[in-house]
Every structure is written in C-alpha cells, then in structure tokens.
Amino acid sequence: MKVYVEAGRAQEVELKGALLLYAGRGCAFAVWHESKQGASHCAALSEAKVLTTEFVKSLSHELRTAIAAEILPHNILAWNSDLVVWWSPRSTRRMFFRNSGEVPTGLSGEEFSHPPLLWCASGQDLMVRALSTNRRPNADTPLMIAPYWNVDGDTGRVCLGSMKVPDLAGVAALAQWEKAFFESEFTHHTGMKRLIQGPKGYFDVWERVRSGSREFPAKCLVPTNETLSDLIRRCC
Question: Where does the pLDDT of residue 67 fall: very low under 50, low under 70, confident under 90, or very high at 90 and above?
Fold first, then answer.
C-alpha cells in the first residue's frame, strides 16, 4: 500500500501499523498492530501488542507532538499541554478605546495604572482576572473581575475581535498575549457583570489612574467568588 502526502514536497510513506482503541463499561485500552504483507500483496495487521511507554514516546516524537523542555519563569502558575496560567504585577500600560459616546474625550491612547492581573491562555482562547494584592497568588487566592471592556465578567473570557493571537509557542507567547491584549481596541462592555465598583461610574476610576501617577484602587475591583484553583479546575 502506497500513500502520497503533501508535506512541503511529495514523498512516499508506507503503512507501519494501526492503533486500535477498545472501550467498555468504565474501562478502555489501546493496542498496537504492526503491518504485514497479506494475501495478494495487500497490507494486513499482525497480532495485537500492548502499548509501552517507549513506543508512545517514539510515536510522539515522529508526530512532532512532544513539547520541548523550557525553563519556566517565576510568573507561571500552572502549565500543561493544553493551557498556561500566569500573573503580571501592577503596571502602567497604554489603553485604546473605540470612539463612542460613552468614552470621555482624549482618554483613548493614554497610559493608566493597572492592577495585578491573572492570565489564562488555552489554544486561541484567553481569560483575564484581576488580583487585589500585588504578589504572586496561590491556590486559595480570591480572584477579581478584570476591569476591562471586551472581558466577560462571569468567565473572564476575552472577546478577541480583531486582536492578534500570538503565533509563538511556549513561554515566548506570554508577553505576546499581554501585548496583544493592551494594543487591541476596547470596544464594549461584555456580559452582565459590573466591572468596577465606584460611586461615579466606570470611567471615573480610569480618569483617576490616568498617566499612572496613582495606583489602581483595589477597593474598586469586583470579587468573582472564584479562587485560582477554581479557575484552573474550570479550564482543565
């Protein structure tokens, strides 16, 4: 049996074997069948063999799915093949708002003080939460609603819109996610949750922390009733 695939250039491949998955009530297992030549020179499968760790590692390498080892920076809180969770300390960053009747004149494009933030990226999805204290969170740290348009208060999920998803992988992608988030245009309030607690409304708080001369007031953050460990369980 000959198969041709397009992988930069045409190349011939041959059948090496097949993985078969068996499942029953409450159990499942997989076996490997090597390929052999059958009648009339057709491909056939040999007897089943139990999978070994060495075989799985070899298959992962051939499929180019193995994750290269990286030294993880101190700001990463959780990491697996599907998601990464990290935090960023209090900072001063520029924000851009789409011109509308809600946004005060001259506010877009200014620099503002921002609270410490918690980030969670999985594939092309991004979630953002805020932190009330400027230190590395632990499993029981309560999370706050990120005080931004385009971020759903209930879930923390970011409405990406025209935001550029990083084309990098691994640790290098984290800074790219943050950069893409703040360089995108904040266009609308997403969801039903209130984003900021304050007597004078949403933009009053941003006016107060404009230019970064004052810290974003933690008392204006809205609790989520969710801890870091809750968020990780929800995302996994």
Answer: low
